[in-house]
């Protein structure tokens, strides 16, 4: 019989034959007890933290809330067993250098305090690590400091379960004080999001729907909040808050591209439907609960939603006219054009941008 390995040398033996790649144990305590390495303990804790898809919704909502978001947009869809979730917020944002680091264990922005809320302790730096440990993909779709965040998650629901009924809006009831609560219905993703909204009321506002509904909502939000300077003089939409970027879309193709850049996957046909107001923007969940409107209102298809279309030759001719008109300002303020005036048509608005330099 070959040599045996003593208890005291077990760890050295395992590390020698495995090269340390698969080693999970820090110390053999004897009698079947071991002390796990911290990485393995964290991995096991992370697996325990997320038990279903609905848990992911709560953790992402808490993250966005703690980033001081005033609005949170949840877009979700499913194809076969693959559930896609994108959560967009207008909070503090994440510097690009930290897009990967935030998914590491113990990475948190709450250095001084952790948050205790209705869902337990938050701020240990484990939430995003727990999510990534349980899903097929978890990434920052886009984010920069001060511009908000978009996180995209893909889940294999054959491995991480979710409620079978994800379409039913919960039944709401008021208690003797008039406070609303979700009384009946499956404990699905929309219920988790609604209960979060009921706790926080309008701070932050929470929107929940399909990618196309969230895109329509962000487009409307952008049109309300974007400034003329942002619309006319921003060369790079990545410099704009994420919640305003879709408002810069001149046509369906650009809207589709801008959606993809913030983690919303829609087709060009869907983009056309959004621009033609055939997909209605969402109301916030708290508002839907307060007014009893659990479904979106229907679109008035009798409304003329056709955007203005200009022929390419007409746009070029108009640009030349604007170049001649610009001479009035050029002479008085010692300006010169660095390029031809840029004519942009969006909906029923024509904007002209004059790239200039001072002489």
Using brief descriptors, characterize the structure shown.
359 residues; alpha+beta; Heat Shock Protein 90; five-stranded mixed sheet; 11 helices; 15 strands; 34% helix; globular; disordered N terminus
Shape: globular
Rg (CA only): 26 Å
Please give the CATH class of the largest domain: Alpha Beta
Which architecture of the largest domain would the CATH scheme give at its second level? Answer: 2-Layer Sandwich
Enumerate the strands of the largest sheet in spatial order, edge to edge or round the barrel: 7-8-4-3-11
| Uncertain stretches | 1-5, 18-22, 296-306
Please report the distance between the alpha carbons of the first and last residues. Answer: 93 Å
As for the CATH topology of the largest domain, it is Heat Shock Protein 90
The fraction of residues in strands falls at: 15-25%
Structural class: alpha+beta
Q: How much helicity do the residues have? A: 25-40%
What is the tally of helical segments? 11
* Main sheet characteristics: 5 strands, mixed
Number of structural domains = 3
E-strand count: 15
Rounded mean pLDDT is 81
Task: Spell out the helices and strands N to C.
Answer: HEEHHEEEEHEEEEHEHHHHHHEEEE
């Amino acid at each position: 019989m070959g040599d045996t390995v003593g208890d005291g040398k077990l760890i050295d033996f395992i590390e020698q034959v495995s090269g340390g790649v698969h080693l999970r144990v820090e110390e053999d305590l004897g009698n079947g007890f071991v002390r796990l390495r911290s990485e393995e303990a964290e991995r096991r804790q992370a697996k325990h933290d997320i038990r279903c898809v609905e848990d992911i919704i709560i953790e992402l909502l808490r993250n966005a809330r703690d980033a001081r978001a005033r609005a949170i947009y949840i877009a979700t869809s499913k194809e076969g067993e693959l559930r896609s979730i994108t959560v967009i917020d207008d909070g503090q944002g994440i510097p690009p250098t930290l897009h990967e680091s935030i998914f590491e264990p113990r990475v948190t922005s709450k250095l001084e305090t952790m948050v205790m809320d209705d869902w337990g302790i938050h701020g240990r730096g484990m939430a995003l690590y727990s999510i990534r440990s349980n899903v097929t993909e978890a990434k920052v779709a886009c984010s920069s400091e001060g511009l908000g965040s978009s996180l995209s998650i893909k889940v294999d629901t054959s491995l991480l379960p979710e409620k079978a009924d994800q379409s039913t809006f919960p039944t709401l009831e008021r208690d003797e004080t008039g406070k609303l609560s979700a009384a009946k219905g499956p404990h699905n993703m929309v219920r988790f999001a609604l209960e979060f909204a009921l706790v926080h009321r309008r701070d932050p506002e929470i929107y929940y729907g399909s990618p196309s509904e969230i895109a329509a909502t962000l487009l409307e939000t952008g049109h309300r909040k974007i400034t003329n300077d942002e619309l006319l003089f921003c060369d790079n939409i990545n410099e704009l808050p994420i919640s305003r970027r879709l408002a810069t879309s001149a046509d369906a193709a650009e809207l589709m591209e801008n959606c993809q850049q913030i983690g919303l996957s829609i087709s060009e046909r869907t983009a056309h439907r959004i621009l033609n107001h055939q997909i209605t923007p969402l109301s916030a969940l708290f508002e839907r609960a307060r007014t009893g409107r659990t479904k979106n209102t229907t679109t008035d298809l009798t409304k003329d939603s056709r955007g203005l279309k200009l022929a390419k030759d007409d746009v070029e001719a108009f640009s030349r006219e604007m170049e001649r008109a610009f001479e009035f300002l050029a002479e008085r303020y010692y300006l010169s054009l660095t390029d031809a005036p840029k004519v942009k048509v969006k909906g029923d608005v024509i904007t002209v941008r004059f790239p200039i330099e001072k002489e």
